[in-house]
Structures are given as structure tokens and as C-alpha cells.
Design a protein that fits this description.
The protein has three helices and five strands. The chain is of the alpha+beta class. A hairpin with a 2-residue loop joins strand 4 (about 70-75) and strand 5 (about 75-90). The chain starts with a strand and ends with a helix.
């Protein structure tokens, strides 16, 4: 079985439900991805700026939602997104050893913890919270 390691993170710019948008691309830098996506969206929706064009262009801003950036035009969602994606490569022998050591350490830490049935743990936590919220006299 091939073991993988993280090679790099790229940022994907895309527009939901739009198959013809030219802005669909990968970028190495998040800020560059956001700037290019906003520019591509504005050009797609409004064309190149014209001195005779009286239309007001919207204020474009970004907000995070569901671990991705969402482009807003005057506060309304445009459907343009930028999200980080991890690119993997085959792991080296050293990385495989490190992965195995980390897995073993995590399993040892779990095994060292006392096993308490879920019902008892929930009851104990509920009792702790109840006593913490009761006023002291």
C-alpha cells in the first residue's frame, strides 16, 4: 500500500453552478487566489470598465464560511469560492517511520486512559455541571 505525505497546499478558485467561468484555477497563494477570483468575477459579470458606463460596480468583499472564502457583492453571496486543498505525494521512508511513531504514541495515550463506560462519563459530567451552576451559600 502506498503511503502519502503532504506536498503542498494550493488554493482553488471556483464558482458554484457556473460551468463557463474562466476563473476556475489553482493558486499557490491564498491572497492571489482571492484577488484573481474577484477580478475574474467582476469581468465576467460587468465586463471591462467603460468611461461611459454609468452602472455602479458592487463592493466586493470576502467572508469565511464552511472552511472556505466566499465572495460577496454588496453583501450578497456571488457563489464564487476559494478553498485550500492539500496535494499529496508518496511518503519517504523517514516520513513513514514518523507516521508510524505518531500512530503508536496516540494509541499508547488512548490505552493509558482509564476506560469509563459512556453512560457513567455522561452522568459524571452532568453532575459536575449541575454543581458548578448552583449558587454557593
Amino acid at each position: 500500500m502506498t503511503r502519502l505525505a503532504r506536498a503542498l497546499t494550493v488554493h482553488l478558485a471556483w464558482w458554484e453552478d457556473n460551468n463557463s467561468w474562466d476563473g476556475y484555477a489553482l493558486y499557490l497563494d491564498e491572497d492571489t487566489a482571492k484577488a484573481a477570483a474577484a477580478d475574474d468575477y467582476e469581468n465576467y459579470e460587468y465586463g471591462d470598465p467603460d468611461e461611459d458606463d454609468e452602472r455602479q460596480r458592487p463592493l466586493l468583499t470576502w467572508e469565511t464560511s464552511y472552511n472556505r472564502w466566499c465572495l460577496l457583492a454588496d453583501g450578497c453571496d456571488t457563489g464564487v469560492r476559494v478553498n485550500a486543498m492539500t496535494v499529496h505525494r508518496q511518503a519517504s521512508k523517514r516520513e513513514i517511520q514518523q507516521q508510524d511513531a505518531l500512530t503508536a504514541a496516540q494509541e499508547a495515550a488512548r490505552a493509558a486512559q482509564p476506560h469509563v463506560p459512556l453512560r457513567e462519563a455522561l452522568e459524571a459530567e452532568a453532575a459536575r455541571r449541575l454543581t458548578a451552576t448552583q449558587p454557593t451559600t
